[in-house]
């Protein structure tokens, strides 16, 4: 993707484009796959009716995208969440590779609030819930110990987005994040578009504009298990990440500001290895994250370069990740505690799903050496992430 607003990181241009429509009521231009009056398909026990509810005075629905290959994505406008993603395994059987719930109440009551959600206004952590912009100090809600995580007390995972199903393979979500919502300045108009392509790629495009200088870091927090969302441990998944450096963190998972080499550390995924290979190695960084919960500094790339490749050991499903962002948060499900009953009546057991969140770096508003996350009035933000599925050969 070409960059329209460039921010510096060696060899990388980070883009921002145009926005975006204002928020209107939930509508559908095409109801081909919205399936609001029936079970979504014979590949899923998820009923659309289980997602029909009014929250904060706005209608919540479940939307279905389906491509010509038969793959399917299920998305709810509550939190802009990816509820299910059905892709073929090596035998041609459709497998749901995303952890989640089969009813809306699960997402409302979950002790883990981010399953499948669109994250903002600022994905990841901001130290001590404070930052300074244009000489003015801002205080935001601290919801992760002494820090702010994923936008504060009520991030975008808890809002109802206005939805328009553009066609059978595309869903557009819109939200107006008002000035000083969760302490962030500026009215931020956001559009997130999910597209399921015929070559089994789920594209997520983020666009935003603001009427006041602000900070923005949007991402998606899907929890993946390429063996199937109910299949158990992810420790035997093979992972490759195109990153020679990462950002080490303190005990509260705030970066030190340094960029450290992954070579000769448990964080070296430059060659494919299983998640479990080094996760129990005695290492201060692994202790801080209780496993992997770190930002990887991606090597020079553009949207056409796979920055991460993951392979399910049981299904042979391969997920290739593409982004125009400078960082990737790799989270190995360390805080999953079997407290929630998920799809298929399975618990969210320890390390049974992982996340790969495309992003700018954590705490960038307080780290001048990191790529900037400032979005200025009159400018526009755009980011795209692609999760493309195939099978191992």
TrEMBL record:
InterPro entries, per this entry? Aldose_1-epimerase, Aldose_1/G6P_1-epimerase, Gal_mutarotase_sf_dom, Galactose_mutarotase-like, GH-type_carb-bd
UniProt record, GO biological process: galactose catabolic process via UDP-galactose, Leloir pathway; glucose metabolic process
Entry keyword set: Calcium, Carbohydrate metabolism, Isomerase
Active-site feature positions: 221, 357
Q: Does the keyword section mention Chloroplast? A: no
Q: Does the record's keyword annotation contain Isomerase?
A: yes
Pathway given for this chain reads: Carbohydrate metabolism; hexose metabolism
Q: Which reaction does it catalyse?
A: alpha-D-glucose = beta-D-glucose
The molecular function terms of the Gene Ontology recorded here are: aldose 1-epimerase activity; carbohydrate binding
**Family statement:** Belongs to the aldose epimerase family.
Q: What subunit structure does UniProt give?
A: Monomer.
Protein name, as recorded: Aldose 1-epimerase
The organism is: Pedobacter caeni
